[in-house]
């Protein structure tokens, strides 16, 4: 048999792993992982199956090798004997056994309690499982008949598992599938169709082509609870991570029973998360995902989420950013459990740093930044790394009292300069800055680093789940090393993928450059993916949260999400909430020659597609006079078969009003520019043309319609992923903002307030901008009426 030290003999390991029943792919992948190979060889040896075993036992042994809690190693041989003698024979039993052993750690094993905890000796017959399946189907019959084969089978299996936790999973699945066929019959073609939203019947009119497109069916992940993946606080006794040191030793970090009990007593077992932005810029849509996860998990578990300002750098923080963050968090629909600052804990952090020095895990260093960089690249220890503890204590006190110049000393954690993880290269814990702090004042001239403060404040605030993006995954070793070294409570850490949206940039550095160099009109420019910019553009917090929820909480990094997916969710909401109205962007004058000049006819426009004629609140009044305006693009001198606009001698319907027919075209002196159209209207409405146009009219003779400014926004960048370009500023879209200064609108919108949203028929969804004045409204286009998401878009 290969030994634990015989890593070169991979083929022997491969054959051994196949002998215990692993499939070829799993065996190959295991051999490629030195850590798992070492663990599995040890487990096979302890289990006494070096000559091989059946696949069921082998798969359980593999699970032990990859998941066994490091704090309970003395009890592993006992578990292995239960496996090879088939007393523990299912994955459910093994999971229960591992949880039990993790809870007791290295303590003596009470076999009776152990066997009760993992169902040893309990035999579940096929008849027992069938009875449980019948009960579950009886309780859920109505839902099953409604959803048919779209029912969540996993949910049904879960109900069975609650009744019979030790039932064979494959047998259970087979019986559930058979019961579905028995109840519903064979699958039909309709069962394989994707569910679609029911649409109300509408008359077949051409103008309905411009209405918002039917939404694609909701994605499965949007219908699930994304927070089910996270453990409960009382489960936080398992090994969080293995910290591998260059000398071959391994630190397996986990909470002791005493630490966990103390934590649970302090929190009452509640879930506590934290949203910890740095107050050095405006929040963007990536922060919306972080808020959804941090606040959303707390809300789902009836817990609380701290809004914690990570204000460890006194030179970067601004009150403007602090005020913005709190305001935008609440706008997004979240309510902080408490608002705290890392600086609230400066005294506790200082005392913990002193304790870290006393324990021999930190030292005062005098290397310059360049020297630190050089030594890290060469994996060399600092010359001051092994100075006496008493000396570091005195120097750290001198740093605190301001007796050492800025840049002449730092406090560094004594981790592992020869580690394969650069985040274990004796990270800086404290540096000197003679800068008053916006929140803490001038009490301190030493400030903790992010790497030191982040995890310690998580522990001090009894955070249960510390959730962050994947770029922090390599910091996990340092996070747990520090908490372990201080002997304090360790939260559960989980990393998720960043939100990357197409046609934009989201790094703070790039956003700051766009704003400070005036490429855009401030942090709330509607073209930016800052939350302030999205709000000004008319996007709502509910649609942004729906977008984030739909993406899911995954660890698949590097995925670029099309901005059209966000726009789809925005349309979904605005289609239901934005009142319809009519605006003409580029007006072309039409004179109705058979309507008297002083005559005005009022017609009713619909605010909503299904508005009823007897509901005044769902209608708005539109004046129809002998001077109306249509879009210049809705008129052509030459008609064609596929053209539904107006042309000489052709008729169209003016939306909500009457058919009109072009009788004359007035041209300018160049004989090309169209000045106005002459037309006749059909008061009887007997004419039935196909084309339907939006329009506005003079409200009274000689008075122009309501004049307004309309801003049309497109993608800020031409490329899908401008962040990867060297000359990313050269990719800016020159047509990302087009201003229409003299659009005409119906008079009913003149009382609109900042933030009010409308659907301009045939044009898109728009919101009243803050630049509006009493004299002139300004509208921003939020999104167009149609998008390609759901038709091949990501």
From TrEMBL:
Stretches for region Disordered: 190-216
Ranges of residues in domain tRNA synthetases class I (E and Q) anti-codon binding: 692-769
Catalyzed reaction equations: tRNA(Gln) + L-glutamine + ATP = L-glutaminyl-tRNA(Gln) + AMP + diphosphate
Top EC class of this enzyme: ligase
Pfam families membership: tRNA-synt_1c, tRNA-synt_1c_C, tRNA-synt_1c_C2, tRNA_synt_1c_R1, tRNA_synt_1c_R2
Gene3D superfamilies assigned: 1.10.10.2420, Glutaminyl-tRNA synthetase, non-specific RNA binding region part 1, domain 1, HUPs, Ribosomal Protein L25, Chain P
Keywords: Aminoacyl-tRNA synthetase, ATP-binding, Ligase, Nucleotide-binding, Protein biosynthesis
Domain Glutamyl/glutaminyl-tRNA synthetase class Ib catalytic intervals: 270-575
Boundaries of every Glutaminyl-tRNA synthetase class Ib non-specific RNA-binding domain copy: 12-169, 173-247
Recorded superkingdom: Eukaryota
Molecular function terms from GO: ATP binding; glutamine-tRNA ligase activity
A single BP term in Gene Ontology: post-embryonic development
GO CC entries: cytosol
Domain Glutamyl/glutaminyl-tRNA synthetase class Ib anti-codon binding: 578-682
E.C. no: 6.1.1.18
Family to which this protein belongs: Belongs to the class-I aminoacyl-tRNA synthetase family.
PANTHER family: GLUTAMINE--TRNA LIGASE (PTHR43097:SF4), GLUTAMINE-TRNA LIGASE (PTHR43097)
Name recorded for this polypeptide: glutamine--tRNA ligase
UniProt organism field: Arachis duranensis
Gene field: LOC107467387
């Amino acid at each position: 048999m290969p030994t634990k030290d015989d890593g070169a003999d991979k083929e022997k390991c491969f054959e051994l792993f196949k002998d215990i029943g692993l499939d070829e792919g799993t065996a190959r992948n295991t051999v490629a992982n030195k850590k798992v190979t070492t663990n599995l060889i040890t487990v096979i040896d302890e289990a006494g199956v070096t000559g091989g075993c059946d696949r069921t036992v082998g798969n359980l042994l593999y699970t032990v090798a990859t998941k066994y809690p490091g704090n309970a190693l003395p009890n592993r041989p006992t578990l292995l004997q239960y496996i090879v003698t088939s007393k523990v024979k299912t994955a459910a039993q093994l999971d229960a056994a591992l949880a039990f052993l993790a809870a007791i750690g290295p303590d003596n094993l009470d076999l009776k309690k152990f066997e009760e905890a993992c169902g040893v000796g309990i035999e579940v017959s096929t008849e027992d499982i069938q009875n449980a399946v019948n009960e579950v189907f009886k309780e859920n019959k109505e839902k099953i008949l409604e959803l048919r084969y779209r029912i969540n089978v996993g949910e049904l299996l879960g109900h069975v598992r609650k009744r019979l936790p030790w039932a064979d999973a494959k047998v259970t699945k087979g019986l559930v599938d058979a019961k579905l066929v028995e109840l519903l019959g064979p699958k039909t073609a309709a069962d394989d169709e994707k569910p679609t939203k029911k649409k109300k019947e509408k008359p077949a009119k051409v103008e309905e082509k411009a209405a918002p497109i039917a939404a694609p069916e909701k994605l499965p992940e949007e219908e699930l609870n994304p927070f089910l993946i996270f453990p409960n606080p009382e489960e936080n006794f398992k090994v969080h991570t293995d910290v591998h040191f260059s000398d071959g030793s391994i630190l397996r970090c986990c909470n002791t029973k005493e630490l966990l009990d103390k934590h649970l007593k302090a929190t009452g077992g509640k879930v506590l998360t934290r949203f910890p932005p740095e107050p050095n810029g405006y929040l963007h849509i990536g922060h919306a995902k972080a808020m959804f996860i941090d606040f959303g998990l707390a809300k789902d578990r009836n817990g609380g989420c701290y809004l914690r300002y990570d204000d460890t750098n006194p030179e970067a923080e601004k009150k403007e950013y602090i005020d913005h963050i709190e305001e935008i968090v609440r706008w997004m629909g979240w309510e902080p459990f408490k608002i705290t600052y890392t600086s609230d804990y400066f005294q506790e952090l200082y005392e913990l740093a002193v304790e870290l020095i006393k324990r021999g895990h930190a030292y005062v260093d005098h290397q310059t930044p360049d020297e630190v960089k050089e030594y890290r690249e060469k994996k060399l220890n600092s010359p001051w790394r092994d100075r006496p503890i008493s000396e570091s204590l005195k120097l750290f006190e001198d740093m605190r009292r301001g007796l050492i110049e800025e840049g002449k000393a730092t406090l560094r954690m004594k981790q592992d300069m020869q580690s394969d993880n650069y985040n274990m290269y004796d990270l800086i814990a404290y540096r000197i800055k003679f800068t008053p702090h916006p929140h803490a004042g001038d009490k301190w001239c030493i400030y903790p680093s992010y790497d030191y403060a982040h995890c310690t404040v998580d522990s001090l605030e009894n955070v249960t789940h510390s959730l962050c993006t994947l770029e922090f995954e390599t910091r996990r070793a340092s996070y747990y090393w520090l908490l372990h070294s201080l002997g304090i409570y360790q939260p559960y850490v989980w990393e998720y993928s960043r939100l990357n949206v197409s046609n934009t940039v989201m790094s703070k550095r790039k956003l700051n450059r766009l704003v400070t160099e005036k490429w855009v009109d401030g942090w709330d420019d509607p073209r930016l993916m800052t939350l302030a910019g999205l709000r000004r553009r008319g996007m709502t917090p509910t649609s942004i949260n729906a977008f984030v929820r739909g993406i899911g909480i995954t660890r698949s990094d590097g995925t670029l999400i099309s901005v059209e997916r966000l726009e789809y969710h925005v349309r979904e909401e605005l289609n239901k909430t934005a009142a319809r109205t009519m605006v003409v962007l580029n007006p072309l004058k039409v004179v109705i020659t058979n309507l008297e000049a002083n005559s005005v006819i009022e017609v009713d426009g619909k605010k909503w597609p299904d508005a009823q004629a007897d509901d005044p609140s769902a209608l708005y009044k539109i004046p129809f006079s002998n001077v109306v305006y249509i879009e210049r693009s809705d008129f052509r001198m030459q008609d064609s078969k596929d053209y539904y606009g107006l042309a000489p001698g052709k008729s169209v319907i003016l939306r909500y009003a009457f058919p009109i027919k072009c009788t004359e075209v007035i041209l300018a002196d160049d004989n090309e520019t169209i000045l106005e159209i002459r037309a006749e209207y059909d008061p009887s409405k007997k004419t039935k043309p196909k084309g339907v146009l939006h329009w506005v009219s003079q409200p009274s003779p000689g008075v122009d319609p309501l004049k307004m400014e309309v801003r049309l926004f497109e993608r800020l960048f031409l490329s899908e992923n401008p962040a990867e370009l060297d000359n990313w500023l050269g990719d800016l879209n020159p047509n990302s903002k087009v201003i229409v200064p003299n659009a005409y609108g119906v008079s009913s919108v003149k009382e609109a307030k900042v933030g009010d949203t409308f659907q301009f028929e045939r044009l898109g969804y728009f919101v009243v901008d803050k630049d509006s004045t009493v004299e002139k409204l300004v509208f921003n286009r939020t999104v167009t009426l149609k998008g390609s998401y759901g038709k091949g878009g990501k």
